[in-house]
Amino acid sequence: MKKLWLSILTVAVLSMGVFGSVSAEPAVNEDVELTEEQKSEMAAMQKEVLEKEKEIIQKYVEYGVFSQEKGEKIIGHLDKHYEKLEENGFIPKWDKKHKRSHGDKDVDDENDEEDDNMDENEY
Asked: Is CB count within 10 Å lower at the N or C end of the chain?
C-alpha cells in the first residue's frame, strides 16, 4: 500500500512539473516600450556581448575550427541580429518563427535555407 501511495505522489509531482510549464502567456511582453535611458543601457550591454561573440568567432577562425568564410558569415548574422534588436527598440522578438512548410521552396529560398542551417550549426 505504501508503494502505491508513493507512486501516486510521484506521478502527481511529475505531472505538476510538466503541466506547470505549459503557459498560454507569451515569453516576451511586446507591449512594453523602453525609455531612452533603458534603450541606451541595453544597447551598451548588447554591443558588449556582440563584440565578445565576434572575438570568440575570430578565435575559432584562428584555431581552424571555422573557415574564414564561415566566420565572416556568422559575424554577419550576429550583426543582423543586433540591427534587428535595435530596430525593435531592444525588445526581443523570440516568439516569431518561420512558419512555412518545406514544400513552399523556390529558387530565392535557397539562401534562406543556408541561413537557417547556419542558425542551427553556428555554435
From this structure: N
In the chain, what's the furthest Cα-to-Cα distance?
A: 65
pTM (2 d.p.)? 0.57
| Amino acid making up residue 17 | G
User: Whole-number mean pLDDT of the chain?
Assistant: 77
The answer to whether the CB of 114 falls within 8 A of the CB of 77 is: no
**What cell numbers appear for 69 in the block?**
568564410
In this structure, what are the phi and psi dihedrals at residue 67, rounded to the nearest 5 degrees?
A: -75, 165
